[in-house]
């Protein structure tokens, strides 16, 4: 079973007079891993909550398995929600329940399974997340990384077709972040779910997802195959990927042109802001040896091949290199143009 596609079109969300983002259009390809980047406060969590119907954007469509969740009945929304597993930032565990009961909770709430069937599923998910032996611990007695893995175990018990992950790296050291990233890739290999990760973590963004997008200035700057964002010359994307002060993202808000020019002049005069220039596409994280073959890889290759001509030349070069062939169907198309890109699925901004 392949996870389902999530098709978002023209989505706009405000709180009162505060517009969070507008006209967001993107498709999470079925069974692939995607990530959404963006500076703090750009509405990434609001986007995740909109996808599961916890928040209601005022315009646009969110079509999941043929149902527009902004127009459907509450019964249909309930059914669509059953397809989701969500890992919130802190794991969102019940503090008074041990890990076993936390992970068993959705099964007891939403199914009529017997306690012995529940036990089988819970122990399997705890094992998958490296938590065997910790089932009697309370969330307050374990580390942040374990809490996240317990949250992930709980998100998996109803066999989700779509998994949403809000900042898997928050509060974790780089090594634990890599383990959790590996777990997400391995879960994708095992159950082929559609996964969306919201993150600030540049390393995770560069190595984990099949597709990458970024929110900035109340818009989706771009969304598409990872190579598009990773080779982008867009100033805000480059700044974000480099964690640099040089660029349109400021401490708490966006900068104006004069401030940006002054900072660039400082850089040219030799002031170093501590960031490290990184560029290009690094190899993607693979499923752990011994896991099932990650079907998303071949599906994505076929999909990316079919839209290759709509992508910017740099992204095309990188994809062709990764496909490892040079046949006529995968030559860079120099005639790429912005108008072509607008009608394609990689960008809308
Ligand atoms: N329920 C709500 N009511 C009113 N405003 C809200 C609500 N939820 C979020 N916001 C506002 O929406 C904006 C975006 O918040 P959100 O948490 O989605 O950002 P984010 O990109 O996930 O940030 P971070 O990376 O820091 O977690 C913020 O200004 C926040 O105050």
Automatic annotation (TrEMBL):
The keyword Nucleotide-binding applies. GO terms for molecular function: ATP binding. Keywords: ATP-binding, Nucleotide-binding, Transport. Pfam families: ABC_tran (PF00005). PROSITE patterns: ABC_TRANSPORTER_1, ABC_TRANSPORTER_2. The keyword RNA-binding does not apply. Transmembrane segments: none annotated. Residues 6-242 form the ABC transporter domain. Gene3D superfamilies: P-loop containing nucleotide triphosphate hydrolases. This is ABC transporter ATP-binding protein MceG. It comes from Rhodococcus olei. The gene is mceG.
């Amino acid at each position: 079973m392949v996870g389902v596609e999530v098709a978002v079109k023209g989505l706009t969300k405000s709180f009162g007079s505060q517009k969070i983002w507008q006209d967001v259009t993107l498709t999470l390809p079925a069974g692939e891993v995607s990530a959404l980047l963006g500076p703090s406060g750009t509405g990434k969590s609001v986007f995740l909550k909109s996808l599961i119907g916890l928040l209601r954007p005022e315009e646009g469509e969110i079509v999941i398995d043929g149902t527009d969740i902004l127009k459907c009945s509450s019964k249909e929304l309930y059914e669509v929600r059953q397809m989701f597993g969500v890992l919130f930032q802190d794991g969102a565990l019940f503090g008074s329940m041990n890990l076993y009961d936390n992970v068993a909770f959705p099964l007891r709430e939403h199914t009529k399974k017997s306690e012995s069937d529940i036990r089988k599923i819970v122990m399997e998910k705890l094992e998958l997340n490296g938590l065997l032996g910790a089932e009697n611990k309370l969330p307050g007695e374990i580390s942040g990384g374990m809490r996240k893995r317990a949250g992930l175990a709980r998100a998996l018990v109803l066999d989700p077709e779509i998994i949403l992950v809000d900042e898997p790296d928050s509060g974790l050291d780089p090594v634990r972040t890599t383990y959790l990233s590996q777990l997400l890739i391995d879960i994708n290999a095992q159950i082929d779910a559609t996964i969306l990760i919201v993150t600030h973590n540049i390393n995770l963004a560069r190595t984990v997802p099949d597709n990458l997008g970024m929110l900035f200035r109340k818009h989706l700057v771009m969304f598409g195959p990872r190579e598009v964002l990773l080779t982008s010359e867009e100033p805000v994307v480059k700044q974000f990927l480099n964690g640099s002060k040089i660029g349109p993202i400021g401490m708490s808000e966006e900068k104006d042109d004069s401030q940006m020019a002054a900072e660039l002049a400082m850089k040219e005069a030799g002031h170093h802001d501590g960031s490290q220039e990184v560029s290009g596409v690094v190899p993607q994280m693979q499923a752990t040896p011994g896991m099932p073959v990650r079907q998303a890889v071949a599906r994505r290759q076929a999909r990316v091949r079919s839209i290759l001509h709509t992508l910017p030349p740099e992204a095309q070069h990188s994809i062709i290199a990764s496909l490892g062939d040079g046949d006529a169907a995968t030559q860079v198309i120099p005639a790429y143009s912005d108008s072509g890109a607008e009608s394609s699925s990689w960008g809308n901004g």
